[in-house]
């Protein structure tokens, strides 16, 4: 071994001295040494730096006759090469080598570290004689017990994770076959969170070598992991799905990964971590597949009758994995060397016709290849009639702009439709132009051969030529990959001829070819899909594109798919118009061809027989092909097209380029006229029942068709959430928006994300979607998207980089922004076409004249969804405002809505109008309460804590009440009740402040009274409750409308030594207090009602205290639902502190009135009264003893 002084030639004096100090201080965390080839050694180590950083080293050392000749040390510290960390690692190696020499221990061998030093290691080819058990007759159970003891001993000494570290770095091995048939050993490095139930969460992330640097400071990465990652990045080749482990390094890496207890085979979710297993005896052999191809393998001798076959890994020395028992150990296959075994294990299978030649060459290896593949016993020749295989696709001219000078130069034909022909000989395909290897396969040890049949092939080629297809003389490029010459069939001629040839070939030729036994394969990009000719025609009335009218379609069924022929017939009329301006004149038609759309009754314009003659000019064969979509064509019989056009023009005056035919819901009488006219033409009218069926489906939750949850959703939907997804998808299918109004905590977020993912996976998300939420919950949305739908490309349009990101909106699936930024970014957001617009906490849009609401209505989106637990908080105008955004045509203008619904319901308690309103909104508003669907939630107990004010507080309250009562009455008398709102609210505010604490009132008289002893009885009661509740182990949310109240509560909490966190509108870092409370670091959370009443998940709490009541009970419910929501497993107690006899007590009584108004929107059997009347004002301002 070299001496420490030898390092001076390779490491500068300063680095060597600092490295010596690091070594002496014990900073070398791990070190692994392996002899590579000859005099070369590999040293992998980790050394702790001057701070908390851990640096990894990869050192190559060359020692010749005990002398140090070369040191190449790479380190991921800033210096990078032959630094102090490298010196420390080499000094540690010298020390360990000296210790090993003194104790006579063996130097390290690959895979010798599977067991602890105190237990015998599994036998390998290198140490079998020394490590053989004392009793050679030990049964497998005993040997397996020893191996498991080894693994247990390793786990005892392995690094332990702190309780707060839940993430784990995992290593996953698998075998992968390349397209050429070669087999490789792959390693994937993954991180995942270990849940408390012992399972891994769905947050796994795979790393490549470039991302290893991001793990340098990760708490879940141990020093041993750092050494492994360094070794993998230096020695393994990066592949498409992981790292390709070299055969000679794999055992060394696997041994150390086993030590971590985090090495898995194929899937870390379904399998257990691998542990070291006993040696297994392997027997080399060859196995054949169904086609007779043979692959080399090593059959392992099972140690029990129920042991599943283990898998031999291509490593040197050989290792195996037993997935059933989660073991990994050495393979004893002494009849073949590991190098030859690895070469054969990774090789592609041998074709049957080459086995004999392979055997002849391989026999030269002698005993080094103890087993050879089985050669066929005999050869049999067969005559096989080939089956033609026609493949239709698209080719592009290689370097050319057109096929012929007069054709395909048109922009609507940028690609060339072609046909490619193969012949199938009993499973082997041959191209009609090119010949591959001889036709041969194995059957029961017999090599079967066959010859191509040129005569049969020429018959097939002739059929294509007779259909009008020919081989063009120019080179074509298939899929833009490579040019080919004279191999593909195309349709020659000009554009119209090409289209006609292909359409007739697909319509008439393909069925005949299939009937003759041909196999036809059609590529997705082939531009001609000819549908089956329609048979049964029917007019249908449906909800096509709006809510206030029925769409009219002429429906046919093609292969189980409904197709509307009205656009098809419109194309026919447009084509007629293009043929010549004189074809649509009075000489062609009797009476008027075009009829006034507003006055269709009694004007049956009969078509002239000349129309059929014009149509026949378009289709001489009697069949015309009309395009539906981009590539599909519908064959229409001319003799039936003309009567259809007659019916349409008779009733609606259909014109070229006209709008969609539709019947307003207020003009259902048109259905009778249409049915009469259609009956005369022999066409039935359907669909009135279909419209009713759709309405029935939306009448109740669960009535719409079920859809499969999207595959990319990282959550299991609860039954009611699945119904919500079904409902959202159904609305989307029919072009409607809606309001998802579930109670707080029922998972509106996950339902919306599931809907968005379903749209993406169905291929409908060809535009970005927009989500708008309050600023306070943007971080929560970012986290929820990452948690439930990480496959969505998401942009949070907020913060200083907002402007720079506005130009790339179309690159994302989901763009998240705030209501505050919506008016500011209106021009950018309204210029972008969106697939879906989602408005979270949509009650923010309740003011329809506000800038945010106007900007929301101006957005371009296919579907608009409002998410809110409180669609009505104060007045029914708020409901109109939400539907003006989500379903704009549902109610029409605001004036008509107020006249029809709001005034009769709110002013006159009109039960009939209320039922109509509920029936109108029911299809587009889905609301479920926790009592209805979340039956697994623990109980919620509400406790009204009445607090008697003390004498000083009572006197102050009466003084302010008398002053404000007179001021309010004067203002109401002068301006009226509606215009006195500010004065009324100011009076009520001051009274509420006195109830909370007299010090809150910003009046000089109040301050003097507070200074003389007008204390807060409510604060006193709160300070009595908190220690009692906390002593019982309660975890508490304390809500207040007044952030200034927290300024008074805080010093009292400090005096009582009660730890707490706080969240108000001034809190910039919202995540830290939430995390600390959820993690159990503090038992009390002070939250202002406005800043934290929505958007938070605080299920760690089991107690909610409302320090002061708020006007709207829905707002209080939302705050309570921060704790009483999905995920809560403890009973929740809600305390409401109310000062007796005051405005607070009366507010609680008025809350019930608002609650009835909200319920009235959802159910037909209740009524709602006006919200605030003069009597209500007298009630609120009554004396404290009243």
Overview of this structure, please?
With 1186 residues, the chain is α/β, with parallel strands linked by helices. It folds into seven domains: 105 residues, no CATH class; 215 residues, no CATH class; 150 residues, no CATH class; 159 residues, no CATH class; 233 residues, Tandem AAA-ATPase domain (Rossmann fold, 3-Layer(aba) Sandwich); 137 residues, P-loop containing nucleotide triphosphate hydrolases (Rossmann fold), CATH 3.40.50; 64 residues, no CATH class. It contains 35 helices and 46 strands. The strands form nine sheets. A seven-stranded parallel beta sheet has the order 36-37-35-38-39-34-40. Strands 5, 6, 7, 8, 9 and 10 form a six-stranded mixed beta sheet that branches. β14 and β15 form a beta hairpin. α17 packs across α18. The longest helix has 25 residues. About 10% of the residues have low confidence.
Show the helix and strand layout.
Blueprint: H1 13-24, E1 28-35, E2 40-48, E3 54-64, E4 67-75, H2 84-103, H3 128-131, H4 140-157, E5 167-177, E6 183-193, E7 205-207, H5 223-235, E8 237-238, E9 243-244, H6 250-260, E10 263-265, E11 275-276, E12 280-288, E13 294-300, E14 311-313, E15 319-322, E16 327-332, H7 338-345, H8 355-362, E17 378-382, E18 387-397, E19 416-425, E20 428-431, E21 439-443, E22 446-450, H9 454-466, E23 476-478, E24 483-484, H10 495-515, E25 519-522, E26 529-530, E27 538-542, E28 549-558, E29 561-564, H11 566-579, H12 610-618, E30 623-628, E31 632-637, H13 638-652, E32 662-664, H14 669-680, E33 685-686, H15 688-699, H16 719-733, E34 738-740, H17 748-761, E35 769-773, H18 778-788, E36 794-796, H19 802-805, E37 814-818, H20 826-831, E38 833-840, H21 851-858, E39 860-867, H22 877-886, H23 894-908, H24 911-921, E40 925-926, H25 930-933, E41 940-947, H26 951-975, H27 981-996, H28 1004-1011, H29 1017-1031, E42 1036-1040, H30 1043-1055, E43 1060-1063, H31 1071-1078, E44 1084-1088, H32 1089-1092, E45 1103-1106, H33 1113-1120, E46 1132-1139, H34 1143-1162, ...
Parallel strand pairs: 5-10, 11-16, 12-16, 17-22, 18-25, 26-31, 27-33, 34-39, 34-40, 35-37, 35-38, 36-37, 38-39, 41-46, 42-44, 42-45, 43-44, 45-46
Antiparallel strand pairs: 1-2, 2-3, 3-4, 5-6, 6-7, 6-9, 8-9, 12-13, 14-15, 15-16, 18-19, 18-23, 19-20, 21-22, 23-24, 27-28, 28-29, 28-32, 30-31
Helix pairs in contact: 1-2, 5-6, 12-13, 16-17, 17-18, 23-24, 26-27
Keywords: ATP-binding, Helicase, Hydrolase, Metal-binding, Nucleotide-binding, Zinc, Zinc-finger
Domain Helicase C-terminal: 1018-1172
Region (Disordered): 104-131
């Amino acid at each position: 071994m070299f001496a420490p002084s030898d390092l001076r030639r390779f490491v500068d004096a300063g680095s060597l001295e600092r490295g010596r100090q690091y070594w002496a201080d014990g900073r070398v965390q791990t070190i692994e040494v392996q002899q590579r080839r000859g005099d070369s050694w590999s040293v992998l180590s980790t050394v702790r730096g001057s701070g908390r950083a851990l640096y990894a080293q990869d050192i190559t050392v060359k020692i010749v006759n005990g002398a140090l000749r070369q040191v190449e040390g790479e380190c991921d510290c800033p210096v990078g090469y032959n630094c102090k960390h490298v010196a420390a690692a080499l000094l540690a190696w010298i020390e360990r080598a000296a210790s090993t020499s003194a104790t006579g221990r063996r130097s390290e061998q690959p895979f010798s570290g599977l067991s602890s030093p105190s237990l015998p290691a599994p036998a390998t080819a290198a140490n079998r004689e020394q490590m053989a058990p004392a009793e050679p007759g030990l049964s497998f159970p005993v040997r397996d017990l020893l191996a498991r003891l080894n693994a247990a001993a390793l786990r005892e000494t392995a690094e332990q994770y702190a309780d707060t570290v839940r993430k784990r770095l995992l290593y996953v091995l698998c075998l992968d076959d390349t397209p050429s048939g070669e087999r490789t050993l792959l390693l994937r490095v993954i991180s995942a969170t270990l849940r408390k139930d012992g399972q891994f969460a769905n947050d796994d992330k795979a790393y490549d070598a470039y991302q290893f640097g991001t793990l340098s400071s990760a708490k879940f990465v141990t020093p041993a992991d750092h050494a492994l990652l360094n070794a993998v990045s230096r020695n393994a080749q990066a592949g498409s799905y992981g790292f390709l482990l070299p055969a000679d390094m794999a055992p060394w890496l696997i041994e150390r990964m086993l030590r971590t207890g985090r090495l898995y085979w194929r899937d870390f979710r379904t399998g257990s971590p691998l542990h070291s297993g006993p040696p297994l005896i392997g027997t080399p052999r060859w196995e054949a597949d169904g086609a007779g191809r043979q692959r080399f393998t090593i059959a392992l001798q099972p140690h029990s009758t129920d042991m599943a076959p283990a898998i031999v890994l291509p490593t040197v020395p050989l290792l195996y994995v037993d997935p059933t028992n989660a073991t990994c150990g050495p393979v004893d296959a002494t009849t073949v060397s590991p190098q030859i075994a690895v070469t054969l294990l990774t090789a592609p299978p041998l074709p049957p016709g080459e086995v004999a030649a392979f055997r002849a060459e391989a026999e030269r290896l002698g005993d080094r290849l103890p087993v050879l593949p089985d050669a066929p016993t005999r050869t049999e020749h067969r005559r096989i009639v080939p089956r033609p295989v026609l493949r239709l696709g698209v080719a592009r001219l290689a370097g050319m702009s057109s096929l012929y000078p007069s054709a395909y130069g048109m922009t609507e034909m940028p690609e060339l439709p072609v046909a490619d022909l193969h012949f199938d000989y009993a499973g082997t395909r041959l191209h009609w132009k090119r010949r591959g290897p001889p036709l041969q396969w194995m059957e029961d040890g017999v090599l079967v051969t066959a010859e191509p049949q040129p005569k049969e092939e020429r018959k097939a080629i002739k059929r294509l030529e007779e259909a009008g297809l020919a081989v063009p003389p120019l080179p074509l490029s298939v899929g833009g990959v490579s040019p080919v010459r004279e191999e593909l069939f195309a349709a020659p001629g000009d554009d119209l001829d090409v289209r006609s040839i292909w359409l007739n070939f697909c319509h008439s030729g393909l069925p005949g070819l299939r009937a003759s036994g041909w196999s036809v394969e059609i590529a997705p990009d082939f531009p001609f899909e000819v549908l089956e000719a329609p048979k049964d025609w029917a007019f249908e009335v449906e909800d096509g594109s709006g809510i206030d009218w029925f769409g009219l379609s002429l429906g046919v069924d093609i292969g189980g798919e409904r197709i509307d022929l009205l656009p098809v017939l419109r194309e026919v009329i447009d084509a007629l118009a293009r043929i010549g301006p004189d074809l649509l004149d009075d000489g062609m038609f009797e009476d008027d061809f075009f009829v006034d759309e507003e006055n269709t009754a009694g004007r049956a314009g009969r078509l002239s027989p000349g129309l059929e003659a014009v149509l026949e000019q378009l289709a001489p064969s009697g069949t015309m092909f009309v395009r539906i979509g981009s590539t599909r064509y519908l064959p229409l019989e001319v003799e039936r097209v003309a009567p259809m056009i007659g019916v349409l023009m008779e009733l609606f005056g259909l014109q070229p380029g006209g709008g969609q035919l539709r019947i307003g819901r207020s003009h259902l009488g048109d259905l009778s006229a249409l049915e009469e006219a259609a009956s005369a033409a022999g066409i039935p009218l359907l669909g009135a029942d279909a419209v009713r069926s759709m309405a029935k489906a939306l009448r109740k939750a669960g009535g719409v068709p079920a859809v499969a949850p999207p595959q990319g959703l990282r959550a299991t939907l609860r039954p009611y959430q699945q119904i919500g997804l079904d409902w959202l998808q159904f609305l989307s299918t029919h072009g409607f928006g809606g309001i998802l109004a579930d109670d707080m905590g029922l998972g509106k977020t996950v339902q919306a994300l599931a809907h968005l993912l379903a749209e993406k996976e169905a291929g409908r998300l060809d535009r970005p979607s927009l989500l708008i939420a309050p600023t306070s919950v943007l971080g929560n949305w970012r986290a929820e998207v990452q948690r439930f739908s990480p496959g969505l490309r998401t942009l949070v349009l907020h913060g200083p980089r907002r402007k720079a990101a506005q130009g790339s909106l179309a690159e994302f699936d989901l763009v998240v922004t705030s209501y505050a930024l919506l008016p500011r970014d209106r021009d950018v957001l309204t210029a972008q076409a969106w697939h879906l617009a989602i408005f979270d906490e949509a009650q923010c849009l309740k003011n329809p004249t506000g800038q945010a609401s106007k900007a929301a209505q101006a957005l371009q989106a296919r579907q608009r969804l409002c998410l809110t637990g409180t669609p009505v908080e104060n007045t029914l105008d708020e409901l109109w405002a939400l539907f003006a955004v989500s379903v704009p045509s549902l109610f029409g203008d605001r004036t008509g809505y107020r006249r029809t619904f709001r005034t009769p319901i709110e002013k006159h308690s009109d039960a009939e109008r209320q039922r109509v309103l509920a029936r109108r909104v029911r299809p587009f508003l889905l609301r479920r309460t926790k009592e209805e669907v979340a039956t697994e939630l623990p109980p919620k107990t509400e406790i009204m804590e009445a607090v008697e004010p003390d004498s000083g507080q009572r006197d102050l309250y009466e003084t302010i009440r008398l002053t404000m009562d007179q001021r309010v009455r004067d203002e109401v008398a002068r301006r009226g009740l509606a215009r006195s709102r500010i004065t009324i609210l100011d009076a009520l505010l001051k009274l509420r402040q006195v109830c909370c604490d007299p010090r809150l009132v910003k009046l000089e008289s109040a301050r003097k009274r507070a200074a003389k002893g007008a204390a807060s009885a409510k604060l006193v009661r709160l300070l009595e409750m908190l220690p009692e509740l906390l002593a019982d182990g309660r975890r508490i949310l304390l809500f207040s409308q007044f952030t200034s109240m927290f300024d008074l509560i805080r010093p009292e909490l400090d005096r009582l030594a009660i730890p707490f966190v706080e969240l108000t509108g001034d809190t910039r870092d919202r995540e830290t207090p939430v995390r600390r409370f959820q993690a159990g670091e503090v038992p009390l959370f002070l939250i202002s009602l406005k800043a934290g009443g929505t958007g938070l998940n605080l299920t760690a709490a089991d107690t909610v205290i409302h320090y002061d009541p708020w006007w709207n009970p829905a707002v209080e419910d939302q705050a309570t639902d921060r704790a009483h929501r999905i995920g809560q497993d403890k009973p929740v107690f809600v305390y409401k502190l109310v000062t007796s006899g005051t405005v607070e007590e009366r507010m609680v009584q008025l809350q019930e009135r608002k609650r009835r108004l909200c319920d009235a929107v959802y159910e037909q059997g209740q009524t709602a009264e006006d919200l605030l009347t003069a009597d209500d004002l007298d009630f609120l301002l009554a004396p404290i003893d009243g």
